[in-house]
Specification:
It is a single chain. The protein is an alpha/beta fold and about 325 residues long. It contains 15 helices and ten strands. It folds into two domains: about 160 residues, Rossmann fold (3-Layer(aba) Sandwich), CATH 3.40.50; about 150 residues, Rossmann fold (3-Layer(aba) Sandwich). The strands form three sheets. Strands 2-1-3-5 form a four-stranded parallel sheet, covered by helices on one side. The chain is globular. The chain starts with a strand and ends with a helix.
Length: about 325
């Protein structure tokens, strides 16, 4: 059986159920890299120049961990998934960069996804990917339809039941989900890209720490596409970068719907992230009803620094809530 490796990084948390379903429907076995470790980060960093962004360094570390474990590695070039909106350059050239810096990598399945080129080109790309496993176009079509249904179910689980991507993936794959506390001190919204929010090594288990402190955690995936697009339109008009509605749309929505606090996660040196997060910060300053904090992370960020800022942030929220109670009394 052909083994296809999928790195647990970058767009993994957005599309993994869809990718897994597609390859398994074509008879392949999917191999996913293990959660990020310091060894992965160090090995990925050693292959590129220092200015390369942190998510790409992590991604390359995951690819290196899969080198001896699979026959192919799936690395799509995601150029656009919406009309007149384009992905960051790291997604555009990811397959070529990987081939250049990891020559020992197994063959890379590098499908190009570009909605702006029309549906016909997209279908051609999907059939081209499927031909690595079968020459039957009807089988490829069935696999693509099953994959799309899996993606829709995945999105519905998150937006309809308030699950995070790891929880939704666990639900769909039959794994045991961890139970969180039902008591709530405060409602905290986390905004940022999934490859930062759910990578526990880089985020220093931020979601787990918030839940351990009995806070209810909200994330961008818990919102519908319509809610994200509506909030983005109110805040900035039209977003020209794909996936930035995860930041600005979710931030705008949670600021307007009364979360006790909003935490924005971004990586050092990311231009789109810094612009979008600054717009959310300005909106929070104008509304003055929700406490906002941004965390900029890189490979040198320490656990102690994150914990210290998080404790100060939660203390600020608790003091504010106590003052509101005293005023009401």
């Amino acid at each position: 059986m052909i083994k296809v490796g999928i790195p647990r990084a970058l767009l993994y948390y957005q599309y993994y159920p869809m990718w897994k379903t597609f390859f398994e429907e074509l008879g392949a076995e999917v191999v996913v890299s293990s959660p990020t470790t310091q060894t992965m980060l160090s090995s990925g960093s050693s292959r590129v120049v220092a200015d390369t962004c942190l998510p790409v360094k992590i991604f390359l570390g995951h690819v290196l961990s899969l080198v001896e474990k699979c026959d192919y590695i799936f690395i799509p070039a995601i150029r656009s998934v919406k009309r007149k909106a384009y992905s960051c350059s790291k997604f555009l050239g990811l397959p070529d960069m990987t081939k250049a810096v990891i020559p020992e990598s197994p063959p890379i399945l590098d499908i190009e996804i570009d909605i702006n080129k029309g549906k016909h080109r997209l279908y051609q790309a999907i059939y081209g990917l499927g031909r690595h496993f079968t020459w039957n176009p009807f089988r490829v079509r069935r696999a693509s339809l099953a994959a799309w249904q899996a993606h829709r179910k995945y999105r519905e689980l998150m937006s309809g039941q308030g699950l995070t991507p790891p929880q939704a993936i666990a639900r769909m794959t039959g794994e045991v989900e961890l139970k969180t506390s039902t008591s709530t001190q405060a409602t905290i919204a986390l905004i940022g890209h999934p490859y930062m929010l759910y990578d526990e090594h880089i985020s220093h288990c931020l979601i787990h720490r918030l839940e351990q402190a009995h806070n209810k955690v909200l994330t961008p995936e818990m919102l519908t596409t319509e809610e994200l697009e509506s909030a983005t339109a109110r805040l900035v008009g039209k977003a020209h970068w794909t996936y930035e509605d995860e930041v600005v749309g979710a931030g705008g929505h949670y600021l307007e719907t009364g979360a006790d606090g909003v935490i924005g996660l971004m990586t050092f040196g990311c231009g789109p992230d810094s612009q979008m997060m600054d717009m959310v910060r300005r909106r929070a300053a104008r509304l003055r009803v929700t406490t906002f904090m941004s965390l900029t992370l890189d490979e040198h960020t320490t656990e102690g620094g994150v914990v210290t800022r998080l404790e100060a942030f939660l203390d600020m929220i608790n003091r504010r809530k106590r003052r509101q109670v005293e005023v009401c009394v």
